[in-house]
Design goal:
CATH superfamily: Peptidase C15, pyroglutamyl peptidase I-like
Number of strands: 10
Shape: globular
Radius of gyration: 15 Å
Number of domains: 1
Strand content: 25-35%
Largest sheet: 6 strands, mixed
Length: about 180
């Protein structure tokens, strides 16, 4: 099983580009065998998702979220620290994600350099890093978190026209796709 995740909108915003992307991928026959999840922007909702899947037979997880850069950025290193106030008002302040694991762990994704996609070793300390560190801790073939540019008020079709092609190329290199279209 392979998962692709996205986050829903933040309070005060009606869109999150990662949700827009994942909703478009849901309609693509190339990804018919993939499990998609759109998660609320809360620590608890990610924890519930992770508890539900961590003992499943999973080959990979790629998470998407909005970042601050104007381009697609693959986060290469998860940090074992969580901090921030989620959309439910719950706060974590510089707490280790898992006391039994090292300070950092690495993503496992291919094709980033070949496609000329920007890389980063700083996913922040909020939910994007939280997800990245958790999925990097699993014994799976592919684990990554990808920050997308903020969608803001950009119409879905225009936003997708800027990111979808490069994202699909990256996914095709990392997801076991049946009947490669």
């Amino acid at each position: 099983m392979f998962y692709i995740t996205a986050f829903g909108a933040f309070i005060g915003r009606y869109k999150n580009g990662s949700e827009t992307l994942v909703r478009s991928l849901l309609k693509d026959p190339l990804f018919v065998d993939i499990e998609f999840r759109i998660l609320p922007v809360t620590w608890q909702d990610f924890d519930s998702f992770f508890e539900a899947i961590k003992h499943q037979e999973i080959t990979g997880i790629i998470g998407f979220g909005e970042g601050s850069e104007p381009s697609v950025v693959v986060e290469c290193t998860g940090q074992n620290i969580a901090s921030g106030i989620d959309e439910a008002g719950f706060e974590k302040t510089d707490v280790p994600i898992n006391h039994t694991l090292p300070e950092t762990n690495g993503s496992r994704i291919v094709g980033v350099d070949e496609l000329g996609i920007q890389k980063s070793d700083d996913a922040g300390q909020f939910l994007c890093n939280y997800e990245l560190f958790h999925i990097n801790s699993l014994n799976i073939q592919t684990s990554a978190f990808i920050h997308l540019p903020p969608q803001l008020d950009t119409p879905d079709n225009l936003y997708l026209s800027k990111i979808r092609t490069i994202v699909i190329e990256l996914l095709k290199r990392n997801i076991p796709i049946k009947n490669n279209v």
